[in-house]
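Retro notes (design track)

What went well: tokenization of the new backbones is finally stable.
What didn't: we kept losing track of which sequence belonged to which structure.
Fix going forward: every design gets posted as structure first, then sequence, in one message. First example under the new rule, 667 residues:
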């Protein structure tokens, strides 16, 4: 019995020795060798640079990090591969794992910044954006001689409404690599946002040609803000003709032709830069609909992410969930809805799935909302919206009126305009006239003077020039202290003078000049302009016009009749049911009066003052018809104006003290 027990004990001991586990260090060595073989195979897969090889490399690296979790360089390789393949959540978690190691690796910080940046782009959480900024900043601190982290900071800081910090980051990127094209456009973009327009203009001119071709084309492409007709016409042109067409396109949109820079084009390039740095997909070589909308309308006031907030339906049984991104532009009365139909972070235009067919919903600003914003201008029927003034300026509303006259040297163009300002304001205006070939034909500068209509509230100026017949662009730029600035732009066509009866344009004025102050030997007429053509109820409407080529009789006298008519332009745009149930007062009956005159010569300079006591507030038109009683010819001219309630006494303006109310005066 004892022998049996001894034999069993010996057998158990032998078996335990045979099957005893290896020492811990021996198992670790074999596992490490296996993990290293997996990593070597993963590197070979990555070198092949195909989609299948990348996914195989991910599998090998995942297995390797499970076998040996003590190698942070493998985690970093796997995190980068996750990000490259679009697995942003896995990449972020893997990068976060690296934060537990006591290492300061700029590549680790840069990768973590990329992961949090992608997280913010998807979910629009401010904390994700802040973590991206922190990690990019740390990566730049650890290796300030690499521009990538500095460049990545620029659009994120702009999204945070900190253009000064964005400019500093862009400058650091340029210091790290002065020849880096994307650093150059980032610095130009930040300079424009800070109001340094001249530098931004020259910097963009140098940087854009140096960008890769597929990126440079985004700056040269006007399709996002052009009409379909323009885009189609442009696609059929030769390259040299296309460049000239694009140049003309932007010159026609220039809000301030008195300056050498084109503020609209610079704003577009700045938006393109932001979209390129934030939404550009290097793998596809394009940006998604976010970049397109940003280039057209700029940053939204509010962004909201809706996880699986919509479905794409194909029949009754097939439904595909989609992520949705909502962008709100309240100043434009516009809401933009974007769809991530593949759930991969690439947003496409919103599709309305109708009963018979699907329709892509194009964003479009509300015309009334846009009209209320003096500082904004819509282009191409609302396909784009730009600011009239560059960043950092305080807008001054400027209203102008162009009038055409005949002179001894040919057609004469007169520009009257008004800007708000008290008598102590030092406002200076510059006007520029360009022909259809964009050649500058006239330029002058004047200091504004108090308006005769509102002497304590507004200032006015007048420019005039004799020009040959043709079509012209007129621009007026007003500059004041403390960064104040306003612009006005309009076009006009001057026709050659003929020999038949004709009239100048009507100019609404602030009263009629005192006849006792007129010099019969001076052919010029002092007009106190009212460019807004706004009249207080109870105040006479005064206007000035000229009559040309009256035919004299045998005694040298010209006989003519002129008739003025004031009619309402108010229309009730409600549907017929509303008009029936809640009728509004009918527009007043047109006010009309005629008068016969005679004079020596064929030129008549005429002021007319019309009492409007019976007219209510509203939109009106003044038309004047002149009939030559000798030559039996007629001519007509018209001008819109507005009647408003009188302003309070402390702010009200009035008619010039020398006005002759209820009568006519002529020179």
């Amino acid at each position: 019995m004892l022998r049996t027990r001894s034999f069993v004990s010996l057998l158990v001991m032998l078996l335990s020795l045979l099957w005893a586990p290896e020492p811990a260090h021996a198992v670790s060595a074999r596992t490490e060798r296996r993990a290293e073989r997996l990593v070597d195979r993963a590197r070979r897969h990555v070198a092949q640079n195909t989609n299948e090889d990348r996914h195989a490399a991910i599998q090998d690296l995942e297995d390797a990090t499970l076998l040996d979790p003590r190698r942070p360089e493998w985690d970093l390789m796997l995190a980068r591969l996750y990000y490259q393949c679009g697995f942003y959540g896995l990449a972020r978690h893997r990068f976060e794992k690296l934060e537990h190691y006591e290492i300061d690796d700029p590549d680790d910080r840069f990768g973590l910044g990329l992961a949090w940046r992608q997280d913010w782009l998807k979910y629009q959480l401010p904390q994700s954006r802040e973590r991206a900024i922190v990690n990019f900043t740390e990566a730049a601190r650890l290796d300030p001689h690499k521009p990538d982290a500095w460049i990545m900071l620029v659009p994120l800081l702009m999204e945070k409404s900190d253009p000064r910090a964005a400019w500093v980051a862009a400058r650091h990127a340029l210091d790290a690599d002065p020849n880096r094209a994307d650093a150059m456009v980032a610095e130009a973009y930040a300079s424009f946002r800070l109001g340094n327009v001249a530098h931004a203009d020259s910097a963009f001119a140098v940087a854009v040609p140096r960008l890769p071709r597929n990126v440079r084309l985004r700056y040269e492409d006007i399709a996002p803000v052009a009409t379909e007709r323009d885009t189609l016409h442009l696609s059929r042109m030769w390259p040299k003709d296309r460049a000239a067409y694009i140049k003309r396109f932007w010159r026609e949109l220039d809000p301030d032709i008195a300056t050498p820079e084109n503020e609209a084009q610079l704003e577009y390039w700045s938006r393109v830069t932001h979209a390129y740095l934030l939404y550009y997909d290097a793998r596809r070589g394009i940006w998604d609909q976010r970049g397109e909308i940003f280039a057209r309308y700029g940053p939204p006031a509010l962004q909201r992410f809706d996880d699986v907030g919509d479905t794409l339906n194909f029949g009754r049984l097939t439904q595909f969930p989609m992520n949705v991104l909502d962008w709100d532009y309240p100043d434009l009365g516009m809401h933009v809805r974007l769809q991530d139909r593949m759930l991969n972070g690439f947003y496409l235009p919103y599709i309305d799935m109708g009963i018979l067919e699907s329709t892509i919903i194009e964003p479009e600003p509300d015309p009334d909302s846009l009209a209320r914003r003096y500082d904004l201008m819509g282009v191409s029927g609302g396909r784009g919206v730009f600011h009239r003034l560059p960043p950092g300026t305080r807008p001054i509303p400027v209203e102008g009126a162009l009038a055409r006259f005949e002179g001894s040297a040919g057609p004469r163009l007169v520009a009257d305009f008004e800007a708000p300002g008290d008598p102590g304001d030092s406002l200076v205006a510059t006007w520029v006239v360009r022909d259809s070939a964009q050649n500058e034909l006239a330029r002058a500068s004047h200091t504004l003077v108090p308006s005769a209509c509102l002497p304590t509230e507004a200032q006015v100026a007048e420019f005039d020039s004799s020009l040959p017949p043709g079509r012209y662009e007129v621009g007026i730029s007003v500059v004041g202290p403390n960064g104040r600035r306003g612009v006005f732009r309009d076009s006009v066509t001057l026709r050659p003078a003929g020999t038949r009866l004709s009239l100048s344009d009507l100019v609404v004025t602030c009263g009629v000049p005192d006849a006792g102050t007129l010099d019969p030997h001076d052919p010029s007429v002092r007009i106190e302009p009212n460019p807004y053509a706004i009249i207080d109820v109870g105040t006479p409407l005064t206007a000035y016009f000229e009559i040309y080529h009256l035919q004299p009789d045998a005694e040298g006298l010209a006989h003519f009749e002129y008739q003025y008519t004031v009619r309402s332009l108010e229309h009730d745009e409600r549907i017929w049911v509303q008009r029936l149930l809640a009728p509004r007062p009918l527009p007043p009956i047109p006010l009309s009066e005629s008068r016969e005159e005679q004079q020596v010569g064929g030129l008549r300079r005429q002021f007319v003052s019309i009492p409007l006591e019976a007219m209510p507030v509203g939109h009106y038109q003044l038309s004047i018809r002149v009939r030559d009683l000798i030559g039996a010819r007629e001519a007509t001219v018209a001008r819109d104006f507005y009647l408003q309630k009188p302003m309070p006494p402390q702010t009200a303006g009035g008619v010039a003290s020398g006005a002759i109310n209820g009568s006519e005066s002529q020179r």
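Added context from the reviewer: DSSP finds 18 helices and 29 strands in the chain.
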